Amino acid sequence: MKKKVVVGMSGGVDSSVAAYLLKEQGYDVIGVTMQIWQDEDVCAVEKEGGCCGLSAVEDARRVAASLEIPYYVMNFKREFQRDVIDYFVREYLQGRTPNPCIACNRYVKWEALLNRSRMIGADYIATGHYARVVRLNNGRYTIRKSVTEEKDQTYALYNLTQEQLTHTLMPVGDYTKDQIRTIAEKIDVRVSKKKDSQEICFIPDHDYAGFIEKEMKGSVPPVGNFVTADGNVLGTHKGITHYTIGQRKGLNLAMGHPVFVTEIRPDTNEVVIGEAEDVFTDRLMCDHLNFMAIPDLDSDTRLVAKIRYAHKGAPCTVRKISESEAEVIFDTPQRAVTPGQAVVFYTGEDIAGGGIIKKAGAKGRNDG
């Protein structure tokens, strides 16, 4: 009997080819689009190439028809609001810079979709991510980097559980982007030249502060002070939601030389300004830990860590502090370690685990 797989179809080239590849491999494929954002004016999907609006539904429906697979639209608007948008707004108001795509993957694209897919008899869910699911010799499932470093999307998937990975397929991770587009053209999928989706689909204009203000209906933290680390007032900022660690542009401070955001203090509504060297640190604290290739941290562990999606990764020692916290000590200082972002640990090509950055540590402290 064929195994049944629900493919999350965004109307883009990657998920379309994922559905094709799985059908070719002999799976009983069902296409599903997750309707998570219903305002086409807010999420300008056709223009921006996003994955969450009505035009995405129409593209996915056409692809499913051409592949001759069943297709459905499932409404996950409530889950998306609760687990992604509300989380995004809450984190910014607390002076952190979240990654909503990671929250969406963990709680919407996997937890909610997998639960509903299992209810209709599916064995697996699948996506068009550039990553690979593998089972290691120790019996644990992990996510391995895709064959193309340029498109690798493992960073945003570190938080998936072992149970979720057991029921996950990622066929696109074995191909380069050019190969995927070639396959799409060969099977005459109309979306073969469609551009990739934006990182944050629900803010296509990239005005995070404006979006937060709309969500809060104007009830956002007021203007406050730019200060030095020791409290000297330098000027007035527009509100903490306008800033992130390492930011240089848009500060409007006449300092005579480039200065940078080094800390955001929501309790006092202050944005701390420093020099270029102040943006570097050799350690951080993280919490909300999740492990993949390894079951836990029994002792100091040598790994490579990425502190943002575009970070190339840096060698480090990871030390568990408590059941929910770990300290990461880098071999060399890293720029703009940002609370709210994920830190993802790798062992070779595989995700060892990860967490959410809680605090950047002070450079030059002793390791003991």
Short synopsis of the structure:
By secondary structure, the chain is α/β, with parallel strands linked by helices.
List the helices and strands and how they pair.
Elements: E1 4-8, H1 13-24, E2 28-35, H2 45-48, H3 54-67, E3 71-75, H4 77-93, H5 100-119, E4 124-126, E5 131-135, E6 141-145, H6 162-166, E7 168-169, H7 177-186, H8 208-215, E8 224-227, E9 233-237, E10 260-265, E11 270-274, E12 280-291, E13 301-306, E14 314-320, E15 325-335, E16 342-347, E17 350-360
Parallel strand pairs: 1-2, 1-4, 2-3, 4-7, 8-11
Antiparallel strand pairs: 5-6, 8-9, 10-11, 12-15, 12-17, 13-14, 13-16, 14-15, 16-17
Strand content: 25-35%
Q: Report the total helices.
A: 8
Secondary structure tally: strands: 17
Q: What percentage of residues falls in helices of 4 or more residues?
A: 10-25%
Which segments are poorly predicted (pLDDT under 50) over 5 or more consecutive residues? 42-49, 363-368
Task: Describe what this molecule looks like in 3D.
This protein is an alpha/beta fold. It has eight helices and 17 strands. Strand 10 and strand 11 form a beta hairpin. The chain is globular. It starts with a strand and ends in an 8-residue tail after the last strand.
What features would you highlight for this structure?
alpha/beta, six-stranded antiparallel β-barrel, disordered C terminus, 368 residues
